Amino acid sequence: MIPFVSVGLLALLALSIPVGIVLFLLGFGIDAFFSGFPLIRGLGNMVWSSSNSATLIAIPFFVLLGEILVRSGVATRTYAALDRWVSWLPGGLVHANIATATMFSATSGSSVATAATVATVAMPQAEKLGYDPKLFSGAIAAGGTLGIMIPPSINLIVYGFLTQSSIPQLFLAGLIPGIALALMFMLVTVIICLIRPDLGGLRRTFPIAQMLRALIDLIPIIILFAMIVGSIYRGWATPTEAAAVGVAGAFLIAFAFGGISWDMLTQSLTGTVKITSMIMLIVIGASFLNFTLASAGLGRELTAFMEGLGLSPLGFILVVVVLYIVLGFFIETLSLMVVTIPIIVPMVLVQGYDVIWFGILMIVLIEMALITPPVGLNLYVVQGARKSGSLNEVMLGALPYCLTMLAMAFLLIAFPNIALFLPTYLQ
Amino acid sequence: EDLSVVGSWSSLPLHNQYEVPFWTMTLPEASGGKINVELTTHNQMSLGLGDVYPLLGQGVYDVAMTVGDYAVSDAPELEGLDVPLLALTADDARAMVDAARPMVDDIFRDRFNSQVLAVAPYPPQVVFCNSEIGSLADLEGLKVRASGRMTALLLEALGAEGVNVSFAEVPGALQNGVVDCAVTGAGSGYSAGWWEVSTHLLPIPLGGWDPVVTAMNLDKWNSLDAETQALISSEIVTGFEDLAWASAQDALVNDVACLTGNGECQTGEARSMTLVEVSDEDFARARDLLTSEVLPDWAERSGEDWAARWNESVGQVVGVTIE
Amino acid sequence: MELKMIQTLRALNRKVALLVGFGLLACAAFVLTDIIMRRFGTSLGGTEEIAGYAMALATSWGMSYTLLELGHVRIDLVRTRFKTFGRALFDVFSMIVMTGVIITIAIKAWPVVAHSLTNGSRANTPLETPLVWVQFPWFAGWVWFAIMSTLTTLCALGLLLKRRHTETESIIGAFAEQDTLQ
Lengths: 427, 323, 182
Ligand code: NA
Ligand code: NA
Description:
The complex is a heterotrimer.
Chain A: H1 2-14, H2 19-34, H3 43-51, H4 58-71, H5 74-86, H6 93-105, H7 111-129, H8 133-145, H9 154-163, H10 167-195, H11 197-200, H12 208-214, H13 219-233, H14 242-257, H15 262-295, H16 298-309, H17 313-330, H18 333-350, H19 355-370, H20 377-385, H21 391-414, H22 417-425
Helix pairs in contact in A: 1-2, 2-15, 3-15, 4-7, 4-14, 4-15, 5-6, 5-12, 6-7, 6-8, 6-10, 7-8, 7-20, 8-20, 8-21, 9-18, 9-19, 10-19, 10-21, 10-22, 13-14, 15-18, 17-18, 17-19, 18-19, 19-21, 20-21
Chain B: E1 2-7, H1 13-30, E2 36-41, H2 52-57, E3 63-67, H3 90-112, E4 114-121, E5 125-129, E6 143-145, H4 149-157, E7 161-163, H5 170-176, E8 181-185, H6 186-191, E9 200-202, E10 211-217, H7 218-223, H8 226-260, E11 274-275, H9 280-302, H10 304-318
Parallel strand pairs in B: 1-2, 1-3, 6-7, 6-8, 9-11
Antiparallel strand pairs in B: 3-10, 4-10, 5-8, 5-9
Helix pairs in contact in B: 1-8, 3-10, 4-9, 9-10
Chain C: H1 2-39, H2 47-68, H3 84-119, H4 131-161, H5 165-172
Helix pairs in contact in C: 1-2, 1-4, 2-4, 3-4, 3-5, 4-5
Bound molecules: sodium ion (2 copies).
Residues 105, 108-109, 147, 150-153 of chain A line the site of one sodium ion.
């Protein structure tokens, strides 16, 4: 079954059939060849219940939030301000991409929405200033993944829901690893650009006065972060509802710092619909594929495989890491979590690991899955915001950051307190 | 005979302690190897809770089990299976479920094209509060997280306000006062750490017992020979239903002990929530509201015929008549 | 003729998308109102339920806009190695497959509606929403998507037969020429 899915996936994707449709086709294939049951009868129910979801509505809300910030000019000013502060580093504007992505991650629960926002403001700069498109776009795709690590985070909400663990604690636990990852991304960029200065483009320094003045342009995003995360921790809104708070905050900020026009509103709304439907076709296709995979016994195969290994806790967790890397190539991330959490998490807990800690480890691996081909939503989103060039460049550019995430995963295993310090300390 | 079976929540004791052994060991062995089972769970299949029975009826899989409450969207008359506060002990709850069984059989046959095999309990749905509660009357004016329509209606009748919060977000909501109280199984509340954020425990089944119905696709059922049908029907009672019910009362006592420290906690560290005893007057009032407001409302939703059938069966057992 | 038709479909679906967008905005406003009202000790109730419905409807009705804006993600690693004729073949083939799948989904969506219709199903919530009220428009959205997909495929086939390969690419290619995000 696994070989069938892998080969089928690659072949159908190579035919340039839309990714979401490919997932449906694979589901039909599994139904026809690997299952004695008429799974296709469940198609309508799967499409209905995977889209009738109050959790997923956070996706269009976060996308809309980003659209408003972009079209009101707030996002561009944030980007320019961070450019003043970080472009002296080897790699120049690539650092601004990472820093901006980190900042927007704090206001967005979705990696795809974060990547879309940053890509839209950053891409025109790359072409203007003559950057290497690979590293430049790869940094956006990778930086965007921080959207689900730094709170708020849709994926952590889903994890908390499925494992019945505390979402506010998960959010606290994601903060340090998220910021650490951002710093590691910048470090890796510096190293790459010291070795290959031609990849990094222009290093620029700005007068201190300009740098200080630029700080004003960061205020809107900080306000927005305070509104969203504050509403969660004050207990005014659930983490999902906070996305709606974010939309309202974005409107207020756009109104105060940029301006709102009818054109901007309609463009933001249609843009939101376009990206949301793009994501949802893949999410729905993935949940149908999951349904067929699970019905055909993937869960049993996984359980038997893991139990058959008879490993020590450390060996076990390393196998889990490899498993998520491999599955992450092919499976869309939300579905990957939904389908594996019920199988993997109980086994992990039996080995004596902490449920909050594992949530953060899983998010690092999920972040990787977002930028590994062939199914890596962030790659597509960044490519979608470019005017030229091929997807290969984005994939290649994301590779060093992928390895950085792997390093982060190992750090988390070696030093669990990177994740657990805040939730334990603030108890 | 190959059976594909979809179990209830894979993380809860009912599945791990009773469903798994029965479907993977007891039944195949009793059949002398004639029955082979492929067992998964609805959450491992990422099925929507409301989809479990409709897909069973369509023959997507052969056997499925989930909380009857999730099916009341399609069958409001099924709400009569799990009326809150009518059964205080596991024995009472089982008597109530047994009395309702012929109704449940008919509902599943007509609505979901399936044959009911067994009805087993989840732990009763008790109340966690983060402020001082002395009686049921104290719920008046409070915001309570409840699942299920009938519980919500009862809460409204008691003067409380029903709030919809998903399970994982309850601790935060309790801590910050988005809700004052929340209803869930005592064991789930214990393992999810609700005792960290709430102070008072009302150990009464305000949310009912959440009976889990196991059913088989009717076409599949009819395709089995009489011998196999008889084997499954009898094995599931002795090998699954009886065991699950037998442990239900002990589980409640243990979970309450674990949450409050009153008694011996065998599953972990005991916590120190305040146990609230509900007085007889309180009960009388709640049951009064149930019979005068909540149940008549249900009778209207499901139709007079069902109310009449309920009066003659469940009503007889619990001593309640819907006007 | 084909291009004119596509122009019409694009204009039409832009209006649909705008409507969907305002629906999502209304949903955000509704959630926000509820959050504020809870501060004052009351509540609209049912926000979670309504948000779910909004998402289902936005998804089914937003799909065809994304299709006509060439927004559904495709991997074009192999496709880009071909010249215009080869690319047009890839595009038309993938449109035909997509249309087939979407039509299947639309057909299989009906039993969901029919089940709720025959059972008079209502949500198991205090709102007791009759599910057909939401599921029928949701189903209609998928039918709409299937129709749009079929018409687009027919237009592309027409252009392919007339050997106007560049124009084929402009209506069903892998990426939009002018990105709406800019
Ligand atoms: Na975030
Ligand atoms: Na991937």
